[in-house]
Amino acid sequence: MGAGAIHSAEDARRLARRRLPWMVFDYIDGAAGQETGAARNRAALDAITLRPRILRDVSQRSLATSIFGAEADRPFGIAPMGMCNLSAPGADLMLARLAARYRVPHGVSTVASTSLETLLEATEGYAWFQLYFSGDGTGTFNLAERARAAGYQTLVLTVDVPEVGRRPRELRHGFKMPFRIGPRQFIDFALHPRWSLTTLLKGKPVMANFQMEGYDFDRTQSRARATWDTLARLRDHWPGKLVVKGVLDVEDARALVSAGVDAIQISSHGARQLEAAPAPIEMLAKIRADLGPTFPVFYDSGIRSGEDVLKAITMGADFVFLGRILQYAIAARGEAGLEQLWDALTEELSIAMAQTGSVSLRH
């Protein structure tokens, strides 16, 4: 591997920053407000230490686990992310192929740039559909029905975006979907010709799930009308597994269990929503302690390494989801970069398991 090789998530981010237009990089990389929430979560993850153990036979280690009864070759999967094809043309399909190869969930966003049907097929069934409630909910329930008809078994309702958080780095560029290309954006694209030529020649990324829905999804539209009654309706409507993503409160977690959801996902939306939110990794430990050891609890937000994955599992996560670092890798080196980062995360986790005397991640 040469100078452009990816040995860590930070390598991927550094290369992505160089190659992406500023507008796109800041959309992927940015967080709410002055980004103290992102810093708080990073500090909380950094403060967690693992327990080194010695003289144990750790020569045969397994990174496999199970999720909803299905075997997974890694304890980490792909979080739902909107408009991944901004990082490179075909990014959604690169992620889908990775999910199929390692039998891990690929979260397909409501605002994915590839249709939910295409991605379910490309993942060979290892796809979960992520749903946003918006407007009066009509379109939301139509999409849930469409996902069911396509063959999705798991639905992920994201609940931490009643209003879209203000992300100044994104706002300063006038970022909008679909793109509105004014003089500032034109200069930005012109200064990043590799991205511009490959991306724009293949057609601007679009919100693919709405090309046949008969209405446009406005990512800034209020989602504030969703209530516990909305969740109850969705639970009645959806026959498969239902995950609620974006939980950062013990009382809310308890209420979700009572509401009959199948799992909760501790998340701050990658610190993109409420700047003053608590560090999700700290809330993971509190929620796990409150719910006990058996209820499925997943985690995302701020994961940057295999050791971070092990920290989340140690704090009580049954499964961990990765987000923007995968987009960095794709932006940096395409599918080869994604595979390099995935291998690096795998090796980091495996080595950390050896150092802590662990041979298995199964509970």
UniProtKB/TrEMBL annotation:
Enzyme Commission identifier(s): 1.1.99.31
Cofactor: FMN
Keyword tags: Flavoprotein, FMN, Oxidoreductase
Top-level division of the source organism's lineage: Bacteria
GO molecular function: (S)-mandelate dehydrogenase activity
InterPro entries: Aldolase_TIM, Alpha-hydoxy_acid_DH_FMN, FMN-dep_DH, FMN_HAD
A UniProt-annotated Pfam family: FMN_dh
Annotated FMN hydroxy acid dehydrogenase domain residues: 1-363
CDD domains xrefs: alpha_hydroxyacid_oxid_FMN
Family: Belongs to the FMN-dependent alpha-hydroxy acid dehydrogenase family.
Name this polypeptide is given: (S)-mandelate dehydrogenase MdlB
Gene symbol of the encoding locus: mdlB
